[in-house]
Amino acid sequence: MDCNTAEDMVPRFISHSLSYKELEEFLHHIDTCESCRDELETMYIVDRVIRHLDKEEKDTRSDFQSLLMEDIERSREKLRRMRFLRTAGRLAVYLIVALVTGVIFYFLILQ
Ligand SMILES: [Zn+2]
Asked: Domain spans of the chain?
């Protein structure tokens, strides 16, 4: 992912509307690119301050940087869960295929 794409995704990251695939690529980019991480931090703080002023935000903490860190950590946790579910799903499919193949072989050999 290039910086332009990542910067375009910042508002959608903040509003939690990135798809899993986008989120994965975005977090990877943020991990490796300091300038986009700074951009995210700035936008995040601006967003929080505006919400804060609107009193829309229940969380009255003003430590925005740690709020961002929590948000990133939650996103990572979401991705980990998604990856786990995908792996578990794939394993279940393999298991079913193996079982069906086993049953077919079993009956073929019996006849
Ligand atoms: Zn970048």
From this structure: 3-110
Please enumerate in sequence order all residues whose Cβ is within 8 A of that of 52, keeping only pairs 6 or more positions apart, or say none. 60, 62
- CA–centroid distance, residue 57 to ligand 1 (Å): 29
Ligand 1 centre and the CA of 25: distance in Å?
A: 11
pLDDT per position as a tens digit, 21-41: 999 999 999 999 999 999 999
Lowest mean pLDDT among 10-19, 49-58, 63-72, 91-100: 49-58
Instruction: For residue 56, report the distance from its CA to the centre of ligand 1, in Å.
Output: 30
